[in-house]
Design goal:
The protein has 3 domains: 47 residues, no CATH class; 96 residues, Sandwich (Jelly Rolls); 141 residues, Jelly Rolls, CATH 2.60.120. Helices cover 6% and strands 45% of the residues. The protein has 2 helices and 27 strands. The protein has a 6-stranded antiparallel β-sheet with strand order 21-7-22-27-24-25, with no helix packed on it. Strands 10-9-11-17-13-14 form a 6-stranded antiparallel β-sheet. Strands 8-18-12-16-15 form a 5-stranded antiparallel β-sheet, with no helix packed on it. The longest helix is centred in the N-terminal third of the chain and has 12 residues. The chain is elongated. The C terminus is likely disordered.
Length: 336
């Protein structure tokens, strides 16, 4: 209720539309009805006078019927799945192999041995140092890979330069760039077929004070089961439930993911609601056509009237790299 008599026009700041608002007038006050949710705002143009057209509130009650959907749905990934390689056995130059350790700690151990600046909070990025420096040392890293099935077209993504050597089960792999992952500094190299069983991936990295050792990644069509620091690569799971994807084979995945959900309607308007999710945005398609977005309260979209029969809802979870990067920067946090 607004004191005074006004003609109201709504300026919708979300979609740019302008619409007249139906009002009632009582005892010199303007009355209108509107459902408001947690993230809503209302921008009104108020002009003196009364608007004859329009009604303040629809008295029509709608019959709501739940539409059943399957408990699991087919999924489509926007990019390859990821296994993070951030714990390795290591060797300095021709020394003995040491037990597994976290990558950044390995880097600092070698730096301390060679009296290089340690990688701490105030450590300058290597590209700020333009001094020429030869490579007089080698850091070798050895990763264990456990595969429960045969894996093809697997790529190693890393910041290794062309001088690094890559070995899979003692067989040297050509260090030839095939693309990049997340940014152009993280290059990809195609690995040979990985058969079911245990494998050893080794890299030899020419080393000096300007080299930073970072985590590496396996990319491909597979799922990942994690047990503490131990990972198992398994066949890709193409059908999962509407729950935490980190526990369904995708603990490190940071790309978008689409659920393909079949449903049957008997006609009428259909509303899609998803109020329990963690992602910046959900985008919807029905039968291949864009149907809207879910990102603010009340977390629902009216997709309009559908003909009776079978339909397909494509529900895309637009994630961010936080789902991927927090596993490296803040491993104790699980945001999705």
């Amino acid at each position: 209720m607004i004191k005074g008599e006004w003609k109201l026009t709504h300026y919708n700041t979300m979609n740019g539309q302008i619409e007249e608002i139906g009002c009632e007038y009582e005892n010199g006050n303007t009355i209108f009805y509107r459902e408001m949710y947690a993230h809503d705002s209302l921008l009104l143009l108020m002009e003196p006078g009364k608007r004859k057209s329009g009604i303040a509130k629809s008295q029509k009650e709608l019959k709501v019927v739940d539409i059943k959907i399957p408990m699991k749905a087919e999924i489509v990934l926007d990019e390859p799945n990821v296994s993070i390689l951030d714990i390795a056995e290591y060797r300095f130059d021709d020394g003995d192999w040491q037990e597994e350790e976290e990558i950044l700690r390995i880097d600092n151990k070698f730096r301390k041995l060679l009296k290089y600046p340690l990688r701490m909070e105030a450590y300058a990025q290597p590209w700020t140092n333009d001094r020429e420096e030869s490579f007089e040392h080698t850091l070798s890293l050895r990763y264990k890979i456990h595969a429960e099935c045969n894996l093809n077209d697997i790529k190693l993504a890393s910041e290794l330069d062309e001088g690094a050597r890559i070995f899979l089960d003692d067989r040297e792999i050509p260090n030839v760039q095939t693309g990049w992952y997340t940014d152009h500094s993280i290059k990809t190299v195609l690995l040979p077929k990985i058969s079911r069983g245990e494998h050893v991936l080794m890299v030899e990295i020419p080393y000096n004070s300007r080299v930073n050792i970072e985590a590496m990644f396996l990319l491909g069509t597979f799922s990942v089961s994690v047990f503490g620091c131990y990972q198992i690569l398994e066949a890709a799971k193409n059908c999962i439930g509407y729950a935490d994807i980190t526990r369904q084979g995708y603990p490190f995945y940071g790309g978008s993911l689409t659920y393909r959900i079949p449903f049957i309607t008997h006609g009428g308007e259909v509303i899609v609601q998803a109020s329990m999710y963690r992602a910046p945005l959900l985008s919807l398609k029905v039968d291949g056509e864009s149907a809207g977005y879910i990102y603010i309260s009340p977390y629902q979209v009216n997709i309009g009237k559908l003909n009776p029969g079978k339909h397909m809802l494509e529900f895309t979870v637009q994630t961010s790299l936080l789902s991927f990067l927090t596993r490296i920067l803040m491993p104790a946090v699980i945001p999705f």
